[in-house]
């Protein structure tokens, strides 16, 4: 697994409130890739995503009740360049003892993802996202430089 962080996803209690804070208080530009149920902010080489905490738990293959029993509503993402790399990386991590919380599967947004947890329970999403790309340095970008 290459040392790369593509997305940092915060599980938030109130998406509208969190979106307004980051966009209006911090002044960060909301990505046009944002949708009703998720907000994206393109940062320096990676993306900050805001996602309802219950939805994040569900997306990671966890029961929403786990929010009350220690689930940390945060997920780090490692994006890969090709769809089949999601399955290969998760399989490799599983053989090395990683806890797979959600096997690789196709997503409603057209990509493919799966999740594993580190020894402290922090979630890592392994994802292929056809709505962006990895540049030569491995940074995830929604838009090629100069095209936004």
Task: Walk me through the structure.
The protein has helices at residues 15-25, 53-59, 84-95; strands at residues 7-12, 39-42, 47-52, 74-79, 99-106, 112-117, 123-128, 133-134, 140-141. The chain is of the alpha+beta class and 148 residues long. The protein has a 7-stranded mixed beta sheet with strand order 2-3-1-4-7-6-5. It starts with 6 loop residues before the first strand and ends in a 7-residue tail after the last strand. 30% of the residues are buried.
Q: Number of DSSP strands?
A: 9
Share of helix, binned: 10-25%
Order of helices and strands: EHEEHEHEEEEE
Report how far apart the termini are: 30 Å
Task: State the main characteristics.
3 helices, two-stranded antiparallel ribbon, alpha+beta, single chain, 148 residues, 20% helix, globular
């Amino acid at each position: 697994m290459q040392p790369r962080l593509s997305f940092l996803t915060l599980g938030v209690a109130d998406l509208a409130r969190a979106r307004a804070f980051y966009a209006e208080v911090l002044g960060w530009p909301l990505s046009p890739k944002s949708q009703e149920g998720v907000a994206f902010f393109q940062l320096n080489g990676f993306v900050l995503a805001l996602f309802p905490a219950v939805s994040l738990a569900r997306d990671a293959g966890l029961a929403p009740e786990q929010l009350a029993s220690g689930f940390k509503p945060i997920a780090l993402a490692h994006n890969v360049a090709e769809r089949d790399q999601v399955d290969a990386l998760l399989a490799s991590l599983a053989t090395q003892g990683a806890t797979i919380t959600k096997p690789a599967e196709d997503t409603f947004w057209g990509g493919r993802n799966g999740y594993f947890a580190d020894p402290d329970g922090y979630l890592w999403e392994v994802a292929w996202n056809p709505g962006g790309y990895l540049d030569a340095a491995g940074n995830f970008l929604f838009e090629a430089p100069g095209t936004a």
